[in-house]
Amino acid sequence: IDELLAEGVVGKRVFVRADLNVPLEGTTITDDGRIRAVQPTIEKLAAAGARVVVASHLGRPKGAPDPAFSLAPAAARLGELLKTDVAFATDTVGESAKAVVAGLADGQVAVIENLRFNAGETSKDDAERGAFADQLAELADVYVGDGFGAVHRKHASVFDLPARLPHVAGGLIATEVGVLKKLTEDVDRPYVVVLGGAKVSDKLGVIDHLLEKADRILVGGGMAYTFLKAQGHEVGISLLQKDQIPTVLEYLERAKAKGVEFVLPVDVLVSAEFPDLKTKAPANPTTVAADAIPADQEGLDIGPETRKLYASKLADAATVFWNGPMGVFEHPDYAEGTKAVAQALVDSPAFTVVGGGDSAAAVRILGFDENAFGHISTGGGASLEYLEGKTLPGLAALED
Ligand code: 3PG
């Protein structure tokens, strides 16, 4: 983006593909980290006299307008952060978007509505995506790719649009890629990876790859129960991906052969019921050993012994990558595991990277100072796929 700014952008319509996919409760943004992360790029462009057109997806609407997924709250928050009026187009490439963009003065910013309200954005059909990209291209003179959280998606605004306009990477993408490079080349050891979140299937690729790179892998969250089951433990009604058990077993064997330490929970908090995340009514969980989960109960967080164990396994790390919460942190009775891992990262002198929409939001929602971490990534799936060594369409499109 520095080259673009040096060339001059006065009066140019600059399309910024951001990732404003923020967590919402109704129309209230519960974590604005992703908006703040792209703010400097937008500010620089506006200060340089560009007419800035910000675009993003939010959630997974079904290719048609759906008020529950409107970007209006994100546009309003962006305006508050920029301390200026941000225009909002109520469609993506229709009359509203055209009028709003045409009405921009130099240095002004607009947000267009959720890109996924148009089926062309996510289509698997190249022609359909291309047709939408053609329409988006009419709104701008230059493309700035800065939605790091979406670079793993082969979507019209991420992959096809840059081919139709002069394009550069924004500052956020440059920072994110710089950090992830540090985790893939010449890593300082011990390199400890903490993986959580609901689904083991989302993490298989990265585990496969990290078995060649990491010294220690700590597992928590819903995905831990598939590992515990693979080890022959009963997991009651906990989250379980039975079809993944053979792969998980193979990984455990490979870890052993390679001397990679694989650490699983030794105790968990269980309950017969999933907690009410709206009322946050007390859930009264009990703590049981990880090999003694009652048949009618589900594990919802790592237990106190596991918290201590994981903190000790993180204490001597030189590099840490953490993706995925350790439990249902949105409920106070199941937040301690995620808090303990976050605290261990804060206390550690290691270079710490928190990757992922959920874990990044978790550390902020739980009240941690984001500056206490080496880097909090705005990309969940994107940072995992980068670490898997995959080619990311949104980065490839910016490279040529
Ligand atoms: C994310 O939240 O990881 C990004 O915004 C991408 O969203 P998606 O998984 O719906 O494509």
UniProtKB/TrEMBL annotation:
Has UniProt tagged this entry with the keyword Cytoplasm?
A: yes
The reaction(s) annotated as catalysed by this protein in its Swiss-Prot or TrEMBL entry are:
(2R)-3-phosphoglycerate + ATP = (2R)-3-phospho-glyceroyl phosphate + ADP
Under the heading SUPFAM superfamilies, the entry gives:
Phosphoglycerate kinase
So where does ATP get bound?
203, 299, 330, 356-359
PANTHER family linked? PHOSPHOGLYCERATE KINASE, PHOSPHOGLYCERATE KINASE 1, CHLOROPLASTIC-RELATED
Q: Which UniProt keywords apply?
A: ATP-binding, Cytoplasm, Glycolysis, Kinase, Nucleotide-binding, Transferase
Q: Name the gene behind this protein.
A: pgk
Q: What class of enzyme is it?
A: transferase
Instruction: Output the lineage of the source organism.
Output: Bacteria, Bacillati, Actinomycetota, Actinomycetes, Kitasatosporales
The text of the family note is: Belongs to the phosphoglycerate kinase family.
Q: Name one Pfam family in it.
A: PGK
What interactions and quaternary structure are annotated?
A: Monomer.
The entry's localization annotation reads: Cytoplasm
| Protein name (database record) | Phosphoglycerate kinase
Which amino acid positions bind substrate, per UniProt? Answer: 19-21, 34, 57-60, 116, 153
Q: Name one GO molecular function term.
A: kinase activity
